[in-house]
Write a structure and sequence with these properties.
The chain has helices at about 1-25, 30-50, 60-90, 90-100, 100-115, 120-135, 140-150, 150-170, 175-180, 185-205, 210-215, 220-245, 250-255, 260-270, 275-295. The termini are close together. It has one domain (about 1-295). The chain contains 15 helices and no strands. The protein is globular. The protein has about 300 residues and is mostly helical.
């Protein structure tokens, strides 16, 4: 039950972050935004570890360090860069559709790497949550046709799909390690690896001067800070905790609730209309989440 609560909390905070990230993407490029939020998260996690007296360099096998570092590179550097590119090209609503690939990707990697199997309730719950995502995201036929014909949006879908694949692989590969590892330390190592690899990426990039210029202190920092705290600190910690305390597949089903939370938050804060489709989607998703938790 604890893992389920953490997974749902992660979904909620990530939904908050997506709306904030969309605003941040208007002042930062995807690479600059990624390194900024990674630095903020790294500082916050480090401060938390100091307050809780959690060691930064525990006596752990070198394989643990390397696996977490690889997870950080795949799940933070690669996944987040592709995600922010997709977010800029698609917008929050369409990204929510692409994010539904996260669930089948986690289930696939969990089966291959961990040999996990879902209970009947969890399978039904997962299908209900996925159905909710599609129902809530349905648009008129002419709009959908326009989207398919737009090359920029199609490339955004490809970037978003790659992001979900890397995100799922990055967390499932450390699932067994998390079962006997402190959450904050694991998150710290992943963030360090992700941040360092982003710095290397910027230094080797032909547009490095532009990226460093964007990272200079400005009002953009203020706009992006809430998104960083919500998405790369709170959501990230709860996401890792959810994976630690329940199965990867069950956590992924509950993580997918972020899409439904986006519908609700967009209605509350962005004054977007709650349509009949979205109302049905919310009911389906809540039912699916309940079945998954009980399963």
């Amino acid at each position: 039950m604890l893992g389920s609560v953490f997974a749902l909390a992660s979904a909620f905070f990530w939904a908050c972050a997506v709306i904030l990230f969309k605003k941040s993407g208007e002042v930062f490029s995807p690479v600059s935004l990624n390194i900024y939020i990674s630095f903020v998260a790294l500082i916050l996690v480090s401060l938390t570890m100091v307050i809780l007296n959690i060691p930064f360099f525990p006596d752990k096998p070198i394989n643990d360090w390397l696996l977490l570092a690889l997870s950080g590179f795949i799940g933070i550097t690669l996944a987040d860069v592709f995600f922010f590119i997709a977010l800029n090209r698609l917008g929050a609503s369409l990204v929510a559709i692409v994010e539904c690939l996260y669930l089948p990707c986690v289930i696939f990697f969990s089966f291959i790497l961990l040999g996990e199997n879902l209970s009947t309730n969890a399978i039904i719950g997962g299908l209900l949550v996925l159905t909710a995502v599609f129902v809530g995201s349905m648009k008129k036929k002419e709009v959908t046709k326009k989207i398919v014909e737009d090359k920029i949006l199609l490339s955004g879908i490809m970037m978003g799909s790659l992001s979900m694949i890397f995100l799922a692989a990055g967390i499932v590969m450390i699932k067994e390690l998390l079962e006997h590892t402190d959450i904050f330390w694991a998150t710290f190592v992943r963030l360090v690896a992700g941040t360092l690899s982003l710095l290397v990426l910027i230094l080797c990039h032909p547009k490095r001067s532009q990226y460093f210029k964007e990272l200079k202190f400005s009002k953009a920092w203020i706009v992006s800070f809430p998104a960083s705290v919500t998405g790369n600190y709170l959501a990230l910690l709860f996401w890792v905790a959810g994976m630690k305390y329940t199965t990867a597949s069950r956590a992924a089903i509950l993580n997918q609730m972020s899409t439904v939370f986006i519908f609700i938050l967009a209605a509350v804060f962005l004054k977007e209309k709650i349509t009949v489709n979205k109302s049905i989607a919310i009911l389906l998703a809540l039912t699916g989440a309940c079945l998954t938790i009980l399963g």
